[in-house]
Structure formats: structure tokens, C-alpha cells
Amino acid sequence: MLITVINVISAVFIIVGLFFIVVGTIGLLRLPDFYSRMHATGKCDTLGVGLTIIGLIIYNGFNFISVKLLFLVVFIFVANPVATHAIARAAYKVGLQPWRRQ
Amino acid sequence: MKEEDVIIRTVIRLMIPFIQIFGLYVIFHGGSGPGGGFQGGVILAASMILYVMAFGVTEGRRKLTEKTNMIMRSTGVLIFSGIGLLAIIFGGKYLDYGAVPLPFVHDVVKVRELLIDGGVEVGIGITVMAVMVTIFLEFYPGGTSDD
Fold first, then answer.
1. Contact: B4, A82; criterion CB under 8 Å
2. What SS3 state is found at B90?
3. Which of A71, A82, A89 sits opposite B11 (nearest CB)?
């Protein structure tokens, strides 16, 4: 009974994470220019991968591997937005103009 | 080159110790799992490259000078070949780590594992890290010692 509850909780986390990844991918494919694609993928991928790994932690239970996964989640939550910021800032400094409706 | 803005600098300063600990973990984990001296050395070098990209090349040169880099490049090779020569001295073949008598450890397989994990991989890691940083700085604008 307990195993099933843990399975359901982790499945919910993984499905929500995959939903965010799908939204980010649709944004990457459909949005018009560099900055808005960055906006879509930066946040959605961070949250999607983070929630997926949290689901895996819950599924795995508490042992050494889940501690490693927890470090991975923290690292992604810190590093991914900063990398997005750095790339967008580099594009802005080079002089890439944001998209406007003609 | 100018240094990056405050967000990038703060987060990189926060992340570099963790990256280096992960590099050391990969180095010492080499004999018994995925990883090893080459991979760990590259991860250590990546932390240094991140530092140079965020804080500028002069600041990076202050942390790891050309002289220290040269000494590290040669020290790694010295450790690696020195352990190999140690095996000759104790009566084995070159790089035959099992021949080296360690105190408190008498099993040949365990001796070999300890020397590969704690000696040879560390030497490889030091050399790979120094060479990677050197290659990066040679291609970085303003990174060579000539200008």
C-alpha cells in the first residue's frame, strides 16, 4: 500500500515535469526570435528537469543515489538560469535586436 | 577582457568549490567506477576556465600563474612515472604496481587498486588539468604570456 502511494506521488511529479519540458520545447519551436525562445526554454527546462528528478528521488527512497540526485537538482536550479542570463546578455551586448511585429 | 556582471560572478564564485570537489571525487573514484584521472582533470580545468571567463584573464593568471602551471604539468608526469619506477626498484616490472610493498596492505590486488586510485590517477589529473588550462589560455584573447 505504501509503495503504491509513493509510486503515485513520484509519477505525478514526473508527469508535471514532462509537461513543463513539452511546453518549453513548443516555445522553442514556435516563438519568433532568440530572446523569446530563451525565455521559454530557460524557465521551463529548469522546472521540468527539476521536478522530474524530484520525482525520481521520491521513487528511489532515501539512499546515497537520491542524495546525489538532490545535489543535481540544486545545481540545475542555480546554474541553468544563470547560464540563460549569460547567453541572453551576450546576445544583447553584441547588438541583437528584439523581434517586433511589422 | 572585462569581467562579467554581478549575477554571473556571484554564482560562479558559489559553484567553483562544488565543481572542484566533484572533480576530486571523479579522480579518486576512477579505479572502482566510472571516472578517472582524465575526466576529473578536465572537470577541475573547467572550474578554472569558468573563473577566467567570469573574472578576466589577469585575475585568473593571479590565481594560477604560468610558473605554477608549468610545475603542475611536470609534477603529474613525475608522480605517474615515479610510481612506475618504484615498482622496478622493488623488483617488479615497470608500472607493475602490485610489486610495491605498502605498509598494512598485503593483498596484491588491493595494493594495485590503492596505487592506481591514489597515485597514478592523481598524477594524471594534475597534468590534464594544467594542460587543459594552458590550451584554453593560449587561445583566449590576452591569455598568452607574450602580450
1. no
2. coil
3. A82
